Amino acid sequence: AAAAPQTLVLRLYGGDSAAEKAVKEFRSLRLLGESGYPVPEVMRVEPDTAWLGSPFMIMEYIPGPTLWAALSEASPAQAVHLHDLFCRLFARLHALDWQPFASANTPTLKDHPYAVIDGWLADARATVQKSGRAEFLPALDWLEQRREQMACPRLAVLHHDFHHDNILLRPDGSAVVIDWTGLHVSDLRFDLAWTLLLAYAYEGQSLRDSILETYRNYAAAPVDAIEI
């Protein structure tokens, strides 16, 4: 008998380094799945543009809504559950063994606990100077003055755009995290700070503070110097 039709997702990649992004996301999803983290199953990646005009990946289709859409229709009790789910997923990501995800660009902390912040500051200063946006230099100066507070206690796997619309809910209510083109290994506070900034920008101080408090309840270790 013929196999039943299956609905899948065809993800196309464009822009600079499209082929590299496709291969990286495919590898990241495979590793995350092998680690037990809830992500879509991936079937194939094709970096060659000859087939469809763009690099692409074929992956599992998740038939549920985004977490944000579910929250917009949730009862107060359901909203508490979904908020808790969001923060547990985030903390769970940062608790994964980061070593399978390491690359040639992964910082080495063994002899230099400031490798992450020093690298970020150097890249940021080079970007600001190259773009001619001198108005950002005082902000970098302010950050560099607080560099001693930013030793990285341990590395973690970062999503780098962890928000409610990047989480899909299956019909049974279980969650799946999508959009992994930005995955890398670094200080988890970069990931957390970006999510907190998005929450504040779109919903205000209350959601931002609630995410931080709940995340800390689930984090594998204390999270310090996030509000310097």
What features would you highlight for this structure?
single chain; 228 residues; alpha+beta; two-stranded antiparallel sheet; 7 helices; 7 strands; 12% strand; globular
Gist?
The protein has 228 residues and is α+β, with helices and mostly antiparallel strands. It has seven helices and seven strands.
Task: Describe the secondary structure blueprint for this structure.
Layout: E1 8-12, H1 18-34, E2 42-46, E3 56-60, H2 67-72, H3 76-94, H4 115-131, H5 137-145, E4 156-158, E5 167-169, E6 175-177, E7 184-186, H6 188-203, H7 205-218
Antiparallel strand pairs: 1-3, 2-3, 4-7, 5-6
General form: globular
User: Regarding quaternary structure, how should these chains be classified?
Assistant: single chain
Mean pLDDT: 94
Sheet/helix structural class: alpha+beta
Spans of at least 5 consecutive residues whose pLDDT stays below 50 are none
Strand count, sense and closure of the main sheet?
3 strands, antiparallel
User: What is the element string, with H for helices and E for strands?
Assistant: EHEEHHHHEEEEHH
Total of DSSP H or I helical runs spanning 4+ residues: 7
Rg, nearest Å:
19 Å
Which strand-content bin applies to the residues? 5-15%
How many beta-strand runs?
A: 7
Strand order of the largest sheet: 1-3-2
| Distance from first to last alpha carbon | 63 Å
Portion in helices: 40-55%
